[in-house]
């Protein structure tokens, strides 16, 4: 069948071979067999057609998918000869009838290995039935009871949670089969799921009524739960500062209101409104603090810590509208229609008492901020400007404004007493309103910045990045994002380029090397090689996941502010 080819030069024969072997399946031509049944090609060429030689050359093509050579009348094809030559060693020539240098007739055998390619698998919905499913999902999505799951195959997998090392999962196919066994058909299972969703929706609609009934039940039977070891929210820290401020500002409002009614002073009215605004705003802060310590739930997976910023933001708006607005209004009315002022003796006494009480609250807030700033290693100014604790910041600024407001009001009232001109008193009201407007503007700005999700300081980001880059399993860190999610709690996210060699060594250190070597020696076919690689490949992926968990745990331990870590494999 190669008589016509014998008259062609060597490079023409090579082109002929490439043309008929460029695809995996060759069409039958010139008596060549189909590549699915042929394994090797044997042909003898005259040495005169090989440049630089004087021998007869035998060319053997063998497929690496075959364990042994077939007869000389079979051919083999490859997906790409260029790729095969690039991935395999150079062809090795052997002399069959003596060295060619002697000039005698001899033959050389050139062996070319052809790369074997596994058949591409089609991963459809049938393959995804081997996915794992948790106990909760099996009960919710397939309407099963815990007793129904006891007889199913249990698989222990690495837990994604910090508080547990491993947890139990089931094969989805097993759960689906058990659900059909329990409910009889897909239609019955669908009806049950629909019924349960309707009951759940009805429960949500009647949630308020259910909570009321639960409260009545607890009041009737009493609370039998043990006392929690959790610290009380308002016994120390920002909660304590806010409660002290509420009590003092409430008393100040009452006495200032009496002084305004007695004297008719515009400045005293502004101070009374100021104390009322402070009391209402600090009550709002107390609500925000109580809500911020609630545990995360499915609807709010990152918790409620931002409630403090929301309460502080509303407080700033309240100060601006009620405190500054009313003070400006009363001051302008006093300038347009000045009224004579009665004796200011009682007003001075009340302002003096207010100065002492507001100053005491201010000192409590300053001491709390100094303590927290020292714990975090930042200055007093940085702690306030970065709004680490919005509740304490509000108390600090409100009490600072209150002390300054008392001084402004007393000064303007004194000028009015000395000169008899009521315009000074009205100007004092405008001054207090301007002071409150400046405080409210600062609170609105800082809390808005915090709610937008600002980044932490660059020095802290660099510290976290260096820790990860110094780990042997990490090659590089990309796309780093460290966001303050409230109350100095940080969410850290980064793309991590892992060193696969280190991860593989970490896996091999825990294995029996002799057993792995025996498994390698037993590999003879592509199917056995595939099974070997699938087994250890899955284990190496689990090892990579364990490395991610280790880095996240160490990152949280070294940096207590980091509460949520998302390391994505690059």
Automatic annotation (TrEMBL):
Catalytic activities: Zn(2+)(in) + 2 H(+)(out) = Zn(2+)(out) + 2 H(+)(in)
Residue intervals passing through the bilayer: 241-262, 309-333, 345-366, 401-420, 426-445
Gene3D superfamilies for this protein: Cation efflux protein transmembrane domain, XPA C-terminal domain
Biased composition (Polar residues): 74-88
Assigned keywords, A-Z: Antiport, Endoplasmic reticulum, Ion transport, Membrane, Mitochondrion, Nucleus, Transcription, Transcription regulation, Transmembrane, Transmembrane helix, Transport, Zinc, Zinc transport
PANTHER family in UniProt: HUEL-CATION TRANSPORTER, PROTON-COUPLED ZINC ANTIPORTER SLC30A9, MITOCHONDRIAL
Full protein name: Proton-coupled zinc antiporter SLC30A9, mitochondrial
Species whose genome carries this gene: Huso huso
